[in-house]
Amino acid sequence: MKVPNIIIAVDGYSSTGKSSFAKLIAKDFGFLYLDSGAMYRAVTLYAMENGLIDPDGKVDAAGLSAALDALDVHFEATPEGSRTFIGGRDVENEIRTLEVSSHVSPVSAVPQVRDYVDTRLRLFGKSGRIVMDGRDIGTTVFPDAQLKIFMTADVDVRARRRYDEMRAKGQDPDFESVKKNLLERDYIDSHRETSPLKMSPDAIVLDNSEMTFDDQMKWIRKVVQERFGC
Ligand code: DC
Hints:
Blueprint: E1 7-12, H1 18-29, E2 32-35, H2 36-49, H3 61-68, E3 73-78, E4 81-86, E5 89-90, H4 98-108, H5 111-122, E6 130-134, H6 137-141, E7 147-152, H7 155-168, H8 175-191, E8 204-207, H9 213-228
Parallel strand pairs: 1-6, 1-7, 2-6, 7-8
Antiparallel strand pairs: 3-4, 4-5
Helix pairs in contact: 1-9, 2-4, 2-5, 4-8, 7-8
């Protein structure tokens, strides 16, 4: 299948398998995969390490905004895919802990943080052939993306997936805490003032609660064939 030079936006709730699906799409179509959540996670890690989140979880929005000018968060392509860096430090693993997950939604609700990340994400849009996952890619980052997918799945299925993923990485999470974190993030992400998680009217919904990766790839190939005639 010869896929044209398009941008594919994959948005949706936490742990719906957006990144796994987007990675598979990138591999199959020969596209670059970019995980926008990783940038929010890296900014969150920076805030945690620099005393910009107090013990109650309150973000020092003014302090963080002031620090953004000098903060270098970026992606680097490696043979295994893109990795996230703060300056010269590879933080790809550190940004996936439950501690970072529990602070990332309030950090990503700070408007200056959203501007910071959006500016960096849009640099990748120039040449097309990218698949980017997140919460507002189809609504705000790339509103002109030629294909927008909105992913959803049953919350227990999602919590189980995230739990298994963390265990596979050697962490030892508590299932109920993982589920609680998902629900909290869904709520904050959908109710923040700036660029909340919501479905773009031109997005296609994919509920993958009962789908395998193989099912999902068959689904996307069919969508792309029908829409772009390739
Ligand atoms: O996809 P993820 O779970 O790694 O994303 C982490 C957080 O980053 C998510 O809870 C909300 C925020 N995020 C966002 O606000 N907008 C995006 N485009 C991507 C992520």
